[in-house]
């Protein structure tokens, strides 16, 4: 038995976690006084990672020391849920440039990934670094462009008004820090099969979830008997 809370997401300093602990502390002591057999105190997740230039890096050693010292007098096991912190920076979405165009003063780099593959930018303006896979391409003078997908939606973008290397059709881009909430929020919208998942370790790689075909996506669809001919 225990208490749990979750105060938010992408937290990059210890003070909010300590503040949430202070709010819970009185309740813990009251329950303990009433004989409740508490064993754990779960302060949830929310530990952030660096996405945009200038983001501060969470000092996990400081956070761990501060929380351990705060919880110790209660005699409870401290539980944290550092999902994004562990996997966020480990995931990369690879996408290929399929076109370039200009509309007025705006430059567009069109890629084969879309909002269904990485929803965070369209959903709440999340920033993900976008870099060329070919290191030499990163030496070209940058351009200011929107990186957009091939889905016909005004929200189908992965970056807006971004300084990036001027990638040409056929080149690969890496959208970084996609390990948290990338695949979890992905969908097959617009009959787009989920991207394949590949695990890489050093010079080794393996496909851990192959990309489905469109036929597989629609395989379970069937006409009702009263429409069958």
Automatic annotation (TrEMBL):
Its cofactor is pyridoxal 5'-phosphate. Residues 88-179 form the Orn/DAP/Arg decarboxylase 2 C-terminal domain. GO terms for molecular function: diaminopimelate decarboxylase activity. Keywords: Decarboxylase, Lyase, Pyridoxal phosphate. GO terms for biological process: lysine biosynthetic process via diaminopimelate. InterPro entries: Ala_racemase/Decarboxylase_C, DAP_deCOOHase_LysA, De-COase2_C, De-COase2_CS, Orn/DAP/Arg_de-COase, PLP-binding_barrel. Belongs to the Orn/Lys/Arg decarboxylase class-II family. This is Orn/DAP/Arg decarboxylase 2 C-terminal domain-containing protein. It comes from Nannocystis pusilla.
